[in-house]
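Issue: ligand-bound run for 3-isopropylmalic acid - logging full I/O for the record.

Environment: standard queue, default settings, no custom constraints.

Inputs:
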Amino acid sequence: AAPKRIAFLPGDGIGPEITDEGAKVMKATGERFGYTFQIDFGWIGGSAIDRLKNPLPEETLTLCKQADAVLLGAVGGPSWDRNPPELRPEKALLGLRKELDLFANLRPTTLFPGLEESSTLKAEVLQGVDFLVVRELTGGIYFGEKFTEETPAGERATDTLVYTEVEVERIVRRAFEIAQVRRGKVTSVDKANVLESSRLWRKVAERVAKEYPDVELDHLLVDNCAMQMIRRPADFDVIVTENMFGDILSDEAAILTGSIGLLPSASLGEGHRGLYEPVHGSAPDIAGQGVANPIATILSVALMFRYSFHDDAAAKAIEGAVNDVIASGARTMDMASTESLALSTEEVGDKVVEALKKYQPDP
Ligand code: NAD
Ligand code: IPM
Ligand code: MN
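Outputs:
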């Protein structure tokens, strides 16, 4: 088969450390399941600003448009935090998502056995946690009109939260399709008691739901959802919500799994091409030390096999290998109970590769 073209965008902070491990696991999975890769490096974020004065250089965008899948680390960091809006690393992520029309961001939250003790929550609350946040990714307050102006009351800053019916319908539909092959439950999260855009969201969700009689739909206001998510997390199956609510709720969800260093994501559009990246950021506080948890990135590679290559067996092999490594007690600092037991980023990546070679699917 033709090699899969991968746009490889390590980015800033811990990005290069974790994507190295992701690529390692991707290649090992390829060897076992019959894939070859053409991996093309691209600058993005702060490192692209420093080199090319552009957070999302044209050549990087072209690379991504020609690729079968994009593997991304993270962007951002303190040295660029005072930059003007056009020269901010985060601008690259938003631009890439928009340019590739990746409107559906899937953020699965599952608890690996043995990590209950890494979480700050009680083990019994965490039993059976297995849900998926479907976050709208190319609309809402991130992409509405924004500006600042001088007024008699001083500077005034505006962000606008806009959704069209078409935008809501396609993301809600995606959530229902996913729920059909999961446990058949969609929770739509909004702020319909206050926001006009949320009232539209809820109306569209109700209408789309009629086409999926096998899926149960309920609604939660976002503040209540934030609370229920840590009170009875095992009750959730698919959560569908707008861009910023999804951003916030998914970091909260990370704590159910034990660490933000474990949560992967897939960003998808209508086609096969996807962007795969951890939910966490560039972690400037630990960058360059070789201690970051690579598992969120490795699990993002599993999602790449599942959603871009339609290879569930390969995805399951990676997830199974991660499960085995965690069961063996291997931990990076963020998951370990004492620092002296912690392994490096590279050691954990190597262990996943070893486990992948030995992994046997359930008969
Ligand atoms: P962050 O997710 O980078 O870090 C939050 C905390 O979690 C830090 O203490 C960090 O050390 C820890 N952490 C994160 N990932 C980890 C990992 N793999 N292993 C171990 N610990 C990990 O969030 P932040 O500090 O709010 O943001 C830092 C920068 O990252 C900002 O510039 C932000 O804009 C950017 N960011 C980028 C992305 C992305 O590229 N997708 C996502 C979120 C934040
Ligand atoms: C994420 C990040 C990004 C977002 C930032 C860095 C633009 O927090 O991917 O969750 O808010 O979408
Ligand atoms: Mn985020």
